[in-house]
Structure formats: structure tokens, C-alpha cells
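Duplicate of #3305? Posting structure anyway:
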């Protein structure tokens, strides 16, 4: 079976003030063409379809048109990420045609989208972004209710049961994803056993998830999702799944999972064949300048083995960085970057007159123009700008130290962390 895996479209996002909708539309045209020419069974979109909870009208129209066009050729399975509003993205999901499947509810994590080909079934478990503060109650109920008795098996720090015997999940990304995958594997084990009894091929499994998996390489443009100071989950929570279609990190990359621990032959004892981030189709920060954007063309064999081809995404305009004395940059040295989106760093000892205008005259698509003089050994001097690449909690701690003359205590750091997480949570629910 052939599938396309993509994520992190961030429809409605800008790049240093440049409207990206035209370039996002070009990628989606490419995706529709790819789905048609490669005759894929489904397109999997693993979250962050929109860039914010309330997207601009142009972004909503573009998504609507794209889903309609894709549905003419294939099935689309789409989930919300941490940027999307699950409620808004999932509105009307029950009314949509069979070929457009929006999975935005925690209650549906163990209810797969079933795809079929000549080699049997492929079960796509489409997990929405699981915010620990929002998802814990529903997942705990789902884990506790079917069994009639709760348990404390140490799955995730702090997991266990309360005095009434109800399942209690830790406040962490690991706890909620592990709980969701426990539900997934329970359903998958039942379906595998049912297929074996019927003499049918073993169903192959795909999980779509929007998370920061240990081993992934982040970029500056992903939004912080830390809860309790931790934003990542171990790859081992996905044990037993043939392919994990990840979203959240913007660089395309494969994650190496540890061997599974089980030996009883059940799904939970099988290793995960492959975990992969498709990455965003466009660059949304200069930290992505060396990334090669692509769409994952996945081929699942009859036993679940995954073959991958990375199909290059169209490049609307190259992203590049140039640095040096202004006279050199305005000369032939940087001539090949005239049509690129640029971050220009001018290193003259003194700020050149009319710097911004002169740079923009030479490089009309320069997005960032900065003056950072260098001393004799080439190290940057002067104040360092706070950018999205820096940890907000580290910046806050440094500010406290600057004002008070002392590093914040553990208690003060906890207050800063809670305040920061509350602001992030408020943005997500806006």
C-alpha cells in the first residue's frame, strides 16, 4: 500500500512578515498532483494544519479547496496539532465524506481508519495532539472503564490509581501518549487475533501522532509544548507499530526506536519498524536553511515493512544567510543570493550609514538585516538579541538574575514555569 505522509502546513503563517499563502498553495497543488500520479491509498496529515487556533479566512478557504481536490483521488486522514484548535478543525467531521477523515477527538484514538488493498488491511490510528492537561481525564477513563479495575504498572512517572481505584495519569506528554498507545495496542491485538482466526493476513498498523519524540532535532519555528518542564516522549511508547507518521518537528528526519521488550508474540512485543517526521513543506525560520523539505511517499509491504521515498517539495524561494563587511556583501561575493530570502549580518566595526536601504536595494527579498561588529578574533561583541531559538525559561531566569543579582531559586523557577505554561495553554485555547 502506498501512502503520503505530510504535516505542519501551518496555513496562515508568515515568514518575517511575508505572507506565505501563495507558496503554501503551490505546495498543496504539488501534493494533489503527487496523490494522483502515485495512486496513493491515503494522504496522512499529522497536525498543525493551521498556524493558529483561529486561522485567517484565506487559510480556511485554501484547506477546504485542497481537501475537496484530494478527495477526488484518495482518502485524506487529518489530525490537529498543538497550533490547531481541535474543536474548530474537527467541526463537522461527522458530516464529511468518507474520503475526508478528520480525527480531532481523544475518544477516537483507538478507532482506526481502515484502509484495504490486495494484501489486507492497514489500520491508521490517527491521534490528535494530546495536551496532557486536556487529555488526561478522558484517557484515564478509557483505560479504567473497560477493565473494571485500575492498576499501577509504572507506565509513566506518577501514573497509578486513586483511592477509588480509578486510573490516574501523570501530568506529562509521556503519560498521555503511553496511555493512548495502550488503547491502540489493545484494539490492534484484538484485530490481529481475529484475522489469525479467520486465516486472513495480519493487519498492518500506522499511528499518526503530533509530539516531540526523543532523538528528534528541533528548529526555531516550533512552538514550545513543555508541561512540567518536559516536552519530549521516548520512542519506545510506539513499540509494536509498523509506521509512526509524526508531526511537530519541522525538519524531515527518522527516529531510531529501541528494541521492544516483549517476547510473547503480541503486538506490544514487536519493534516499531519506523518513526519518521515528514517535516514542514516550507521553511518557517532561518534555522531550517539547510533542511531539504519533502513529502514522505510510504510503501507498506504485506508484513508491515516500510519503504520510504522522500519526494522534494517545491521551493518557492531559497532561504540563505550571508555575513561580512557591507562593501563585500554589496559586491560580487553575494550576487548569487539576490533572489533569495536572506538574513544579512553586517560585520563592519561601525554601523554603516543608511544600512537597511542599501541592503534592500541590493537584496530586495532580505527579511532580516542586522549589524553585529566583530572584534579582531572574529567573536561577536555587544548585546545579543533574544530570539525564538532561546529557551523562554532561561531568558526569564537571566532577567531575574539581572534585576536581583541572584539566580532564581527552585521555588521561583517553578513559579516562572507555571506562569509560562499557563500563557502557552491560553494561547492554544484562544
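Output from current build:
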Amino acid at each position: 500500500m502506498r501512502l503520503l505522509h505530510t504535516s505542519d502546513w501551518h496555513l496562515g503563517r508568515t515568514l518575517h512578515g511575508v505572507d506565505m499563502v501563495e507558496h503554501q498553495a503551490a505546495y498543496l497543488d504539488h501534493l494533489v498532483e503527487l496523490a494522483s500520479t502515485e495512486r496513493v491509498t491515503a494522504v496522512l496529515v499529522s497536525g498543525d494544519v493551521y498556524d493558529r487556533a483561529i486561522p485567517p479566512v484565506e487559510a480556511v478557504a485554501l484547506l477546504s479547496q485542497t481537501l475537496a481536490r484530494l478527495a477526488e483521488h484518495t482518502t485524506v486522514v487529518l489530525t490537529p496539532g498543538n497550533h490547531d484548535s481541535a474543536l474548530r478543525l474537527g467541526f463537522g467531521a461527522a458530516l464529511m465524506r468518507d474520503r475526508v477523515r478528520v480525527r480531532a477527538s481523544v475518544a477516537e484514538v483507538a478507532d482506526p481508519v481502515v484502509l484495504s488493498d490486495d494484501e489486507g488491511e492497514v489500520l491508521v490510528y490517527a491521534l490528535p495532539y494530546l495536551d496532557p492537561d486536556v487529555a488526561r481525564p478522558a484517557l484515564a477513563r478509557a483505560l479504567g472503564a473497560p477493565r473494571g479495575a485500575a492498576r499501577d504498572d509504572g507506565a509513566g512517572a506518577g501514573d497509578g490509581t486513586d483511592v477509588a481505584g480509578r486510573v490516574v495519569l501523570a501530568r506529562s506528554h509521556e503519560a498521555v501518549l503511553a496511555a493512548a498507545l495502550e488503547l491502540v495496542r489493545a484494539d490492534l491485538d484484538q484485530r490481529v487475533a481475529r484475522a489469525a482466526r479467520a486465516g486472513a493476513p495480519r493487519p498492518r498498523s500506522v499511528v499518526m501522532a503530533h509530539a516531540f519524540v526523543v532523538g528528534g532535532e528541533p528548529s526555531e519555528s516550533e512552538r514550545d509544548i513543555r508541561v512540567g518542564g518536559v516536552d519530549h516522549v521516548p520512542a519506545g511508547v510506539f513499540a509494536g507499530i509498523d509506521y509512526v507518521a509524526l508531526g511537530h518537528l519541522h525538519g524531515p528526519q527518522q527516529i531510531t526506536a529501541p528494541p521492544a521488550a516483549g517476547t510473547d508474540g503480541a503486538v506490544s512485543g514487536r519493534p516499531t519498524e519506523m518513526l519518521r517526521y515528514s517535516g514542514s513543506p516550507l521553511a518557517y525560520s532561518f534555522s531550517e536553511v539547510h533542511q531539504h523539505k519533502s513529502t514522505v511517499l510510504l510503501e507498506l509491504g504485506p508484513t508491515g515493512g516500510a519503504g520510504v521515498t522522500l519526494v522534494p517539495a517545491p521551493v518557492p524561494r531559497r532561504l540563505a544567510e550571508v555575513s561580512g563587511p557591507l562593501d563585500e556583501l554589496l559586491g560580487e561575493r553575494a550576487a548569487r543570493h539576490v533572489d533569495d530570502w536572506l538574513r544579512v549580518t553586517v560585520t563592519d566595526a561601525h554601523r554603516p550609514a543608511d544600512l537597511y536601504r542599501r541592503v534592500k536595494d541590493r537584496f530586495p527579498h532580505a527579511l532580516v538585516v542586522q549589524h553585529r561588529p566583530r572584534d579582531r578574533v572574529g567573536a561577536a561583541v555587544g548585546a545579543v538579541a533574544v530570539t525564538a531559538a532561546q529557551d523562554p525559561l532561561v531568558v526569564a531566569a537571566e532577567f531575574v538574575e539581572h534585576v536581583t543579582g541572584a539566580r532564581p531559586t527552585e521555588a521561583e523557577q517553578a513559579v516562572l514555569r507555571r506562569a509560562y505554561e499557563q500563557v502557552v495553554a491560553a494561547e492554544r485555547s484562544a
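Confirmed duplicate; merging threads. The longest strand covers residues 120-126. The CA atoms of residues 23 and 316 lie 6 Å apart.
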